[in-house]
Amino acid sequence: MSPQRMGRWLPWISTPLLLAVFFLAWDVFVRVNNMSELVLPRPGTVLASLVDLVQDPETWAHARVTATETIAGFLIALGAGITVGAILGKVRWMEYSLRPMIVASQVVPKVALIPLFVIWFGFGMTSKIIMSAMLAFFPIMLNVQLGVRSVESGQRDVMRALNASRWHTFRHLELKSTMPYVFAGMEVGIVFAIIGTIVGEYLGGSEGLGYLVVRTLNELNAPALFAVIILLSVLGLLLYFVVNGLKRFFIPWHESVYSQHDVNA
Amino acid sequence: MSAHHAETLDAAAGTPAPAAPPKLELTGVGKQFRTKRATTQALDDIDLTITDGEFVSLIGRSGCGKTTLLRMLAGLLSPTEGKILVEGRSLWDGSTVDSSVVSQLGVVFQEANLFPWYSVLDNIALPLQLRGDGKAERRERARELAELVGLQGFEKSYPRELSGGMRQRVAIARALSTHPKLLLMDEPFGALDALTRERMNLELQRIALATNATVVFVTHDIAEAVFLGDRVVHLTPRPGRISGITHVDFARPRDIDVETEAEFGKIVRELRHALDGEE
Ligand SMILES: Nc1ncnc2c1ncn2[C@@H]1O[C@H](COP(=O)(O)OP(=O)(O)OP(=O)(O)O)[C@@H](O)[C@H]1O
Ligand SMILES: [Mg+2]
User: Fold this and answer.
1) What Pfam families does the annotation carry (chain B) (predicted)?
2) pTM (predicted TM-score)
3) Chain A contact for B132, CB < 8 A?
């Protein structure tokens, strides 16, 4: 059997299997050690809690808030990241003069700024959107900058020998060869955006799944806490798959796509 | 009849004045590469005149400046000395290229340099798309060329699905798509097997004759250089200089049998000796 074909069906069997083993081990672990469910609830209890949570319309309102904040933050980061990355990649003196600032701002633990944002923008969505945008911005910007520079000189020669206009060179060469980098940045960026939103919700506000985490913690409701974390993970996965799907759609020719799911397999 | 009229008649009878400027004219062309580590005189004092419709083969050892010379002719690399005239007009003004001079140009690079995001057909048709041809027209021409270079059945493939030689053939088809009047080819058939190469040689000769294109053709293969060229220019390395020019006078179109002629063998042998002696 070819590795490609195996790569197609194997995950569908291995993933449920591994999850089953994981939950079983978890269950056995709790029972053998005779642990309090207040500390580590058994998978069954978490499942019951999850069912309750999913049936509660309030949960969905919270999920919607988190999703909105994350997507808004991500889109802002995407726009800003592409713009700034393209400029820094193209204009050398800009990059040289701004590089120390960029490095410095990357090193600053941005999460520490959330209280400031809360003071400035209140407990509403704005402070979380800004947080998620800030976290997602850097990976996107850096990737775009790298991408703009990575246009192959041989391919550039082809366009030059054809006497191509700037617009044509951009459309047929620069844009296309930067796309994989944009998507690589987006895949990291969307994960960072979720982190930004959730941390923002932890630290201030009364909406969102991050807030639900804090509330269930205060209630010492460990099963519900687990259930919310699972919901958060699902939201994260969904958003990641959307970005990944966009990538497959827009750059099917790229190595990161065709080796992931070879069309010939 | 006035004396003036008689004079012009006289001139017309003699040389066809005013003589059209040659397709390419290089005088004292040199190129120096300066890097942090070293300064390389890649080419030095190249004088070469190529007439319209001529096929010039360029041979020489690896690193003697063949690619450098071709890139300067293609308007991609500025010479540090000398002048390059295309149909009498200067190609380079200092280190800026006059892009109006290099129109109707087809270049095959040493590497295929395909665009991985386009299919074989779209790669071939790229020059047509840039010049604004319609979609149907482009497809038609690209299909024709794909067949010409023996890639029928691979039109919809992507470059990553092709072998090295197939990629190179796509690059050749792309260079030919606009019916260029000046073809610059840098070891275009280097990655091909002997039989495909033979076929491509014949096709190239046919195309060059049909379109009356001027061709500058770099190769390592002496027999190929002789088979294709009206003249074979040999370069010596470090610094790259023209060490000799061999005229090849077989009638065209030449077929593969030319290679078995005694005269052909003699020219190849002489060229090999000439290149050997440069060591
Ligand atoms: N961009 C560059 N910077 C510095 N040196 C260069 C550069 N390009 C070429 N050279 C030097 O110029 C010389 C000629 O190079 P060129 O690529 O023209 O050789 P070539 O005849 O095409 O060789 P080959 O047959 O191997 O392709 C070499 O010595 C090379 O080191
Ligand atoms: Mg070369």
Assistant:
1) ABC_tran
2) 0.82
3) no
Q: Look at residue B9 in the predicted model and tell me its pLDDT.
A: 43
Residues of chain B neighbouring A172 (CB-CB closer than 8 A): 115, 126, 129-130
* CA-proximal residue: ligand 1, atom 14 (nearest): B65
| Domain range summary for chain A, segments of one domain joined by + | 1-34, 39-260
pLDDT 10s digit of each residue in chain A, 265 long? 577 777 778 888 998 999 999 999 999 998 898 888 888 888 889 999 999 999 999 999 999 999 999 999 999 999 999 999 999 988 889 889 988 888 888 888 888 888 888 889 888 899 999 999 999 999 999 999 999 998 999 999 999 999 899 999 999 999 999 999 999 999 999 999 999 999 999 888 889 999 999 999 999 888 999 999 999 999 999 999 999 999 999 998 888 776 654 444 3
Distance of CA A69 from the midpoint of ligand 1 (Å)? 55
**Nearest Cα residue in chain A from B72:** A161
Of the candidates A157, A164, A254, which has its C-beta nearest B130's C-beta? Answer: A164
Chain A contacts of B126, Cβ < 8 Å?
A: 158, 162, 172
Q: One-letter amino acid identity for B30? A: G
Instruction: Find the CB nearest B74 among A161, A164, A253.
Output: A161
* A165-218 pLDDT tens trace: 999 999 999 999 999 999 999 999 999 999 999 999 988 888 999 999 999 999
Q: Does the complex come out with an ipTM higher than 0.95?
A: no
Q: How many CB pairs under 8 A join A and B?
A: 55
Which pairs from B189-192 meet CB under 8 Å and 24+ separation?
B189/B219, B189/B221, B189/B224, B190/B110, B190/B219, B190/B220, B191/B164, B191/B165, B191/B167, B192/B165, B192/B168
Q: What CATH class is the domain A39-260?
A: mainly alpha
Tokens read off for B45: 């004092």
Q: CB-based contact (8 Å) between A157 and chain B?
A: yes
pLDDT at site B7: 42
| A-chain residue closest to B122, CA distance | A172
Q: Do B105 and A254 touch (CB under 8 A)?
A: no
**In Å, what is the CA distance from B199 to each residue of B144, B162, B191, B232?**
16, 19, 14, 20
Q: Going by CA atoms, what residue is nearest to atom 1 of ligand 1?
A: B33
What average pLDDT does range B66-92 have in this prediction?
91
Structural domains in chain B plus CATH codes: 24-104+181-276 (3.40.50.300)
Counting other chains too, the contacts that B6-12 makes at CB distance below 8 Å and 24 or more residues apart are none
